[in-house]
Amino acid sequence: MAINMRKINFILFTMIYFAASIVLMGSQYRPLSPTLIYSRYALILLGFFIIIVIYFKKHGLTIMRFPSFFSMYLFIIWILFGFSVILSEIIHHTFPFQGLFFLLIVPFIYFSVMPFMTKLGGPFIHHSLFTANLLYILISYLTVRVEFLPYSGIAANPNGFGQIAAITVIAGFFTLITLSNKGRLPKLLIIAAILLSLVSVIFSSSRTSFLVVGIITLIISVHFIMAKRNFKPLLIIMTIGLIGWFSPLKEKFLSGLLEKFASLNEAGNLFNGRTGTWQLVVKEASLFGHGDDYFEGFFEGAHNSLINILGVYGIIPTLLLAAFLLFLIVLAFINTFRKSQDKLAIFPFIIIVTFTLFSMTEAMFGLIGNGITIAFYHVVGLLLLTEGPKTMVRETNISP
């Protein structure tokens, strides 16, 4: 049964992650078509419906519990955050869709149902996340020619394509290390996909995506050296770096990312003009924000999750969310060392850090969000909740 559930989970969550990331194909200047919007919600709702049915069929009404007081306090902070968003929306005379999503949907589907599916079918999050994002890269190169840089593919802008490529690199690494019992061909295909994704990060000229890949690569290398005395990841990274440096990609890298960094730094505009928006939002901040339409008066959106929450919902929700993210990173870090024998123990920490880094340059806490948002909520659920003493589940593997 576990093998069947693993396959079902892989298909369902690949579909959910892929559908959620359709949002990256649209932007303020290039709205999604109605067909894409309806397809996105239809696929996500279908996936949610199926996993909820499986959840109630196999889980029943077993009460979830907290594995530690730290987890319980974090859950309480999230609930308070949801309540504060609801209060903000009510104050501004809007129906609290977003607040109810944070308060009810996230704890039930993301924190409870999705982790249960993981424990029922075994580790699959990295497989699904890798496959879903790789599909975007392949479709991009098959349908949109690389005529100039930065390259966007089928995404609305280069930053969106860079985010997809960066997540593919990160999820691909974990997919690779879990294929130790597979043949050489699957490993070579995954390595090729990771290399293609790295090239895609360079083609996108996305500074955030490049920095995220660099920071996550450093974290993974240090983890394997310190915790496992394993220098293979570092050697692989250095080999790939040397190959890239002596290949034609060097010119693309220098003319794309580094030139972009240098030109913006010389102009004193390293954050691409966003600091002015952030300073204004902080200056105008109020306890419960200015409502959903606050950023309509700006040339661009917040390009930062905390700034977006601050402007729309206010100081109190922002402080609660910031505290939640900070303590969540600490919990994930502790969890990594508690389960040091598990080669996937660091995966929740990596997903949380990846999501948080992207949140510093994009608003990631929308209704549903994109693929990495759902993966973030998913691993949070793995850290915060577990089944109670009476459970119908026989599989107890809690690795993501």
Please, could you describe this protein's structure?
This protein is mainly α and 400 residues long. Helices cover 69% and strands 1% of the residues. The chain has a two-stranded antiparallel sheet. Helix 1 (2-20) packs across helix 5. The longest helix has 26 residues, at 34-59. The relative contact order is 0.14.
Parts with pLDDT < 50 across at least 5 consecutive residues: 389-400
Give the radius of gyration: 21 Å
Number of helical regions: 15
In terms of DSSP E residues, the strand content is under 5%
Q: How do the helices and strands follow one another from N- to C-terminus? A: HHEHHHHHHHHHHHHHE
The mean pLDDT is 82
Please sum up the structure shown:
Helix content is 69%, strand content 1%.
Which features characterize this protein?
single chain, mainly alpha, two-stranded antiparallel ribbon, globular, disordered C terminus
Secondary structure blueprint with pairings:
Blueprint: H1 2-20, H2 34-59, E1 64-65, H3 69-91, H4 97-121, H5 125-143, H6 158-177, H7 184-204, H8 207-228, H9 232-245, H10 249-266, H11 274-283, H12 305-312, H13 315-338, H14 347-359, H15 371-384, E2 386-387
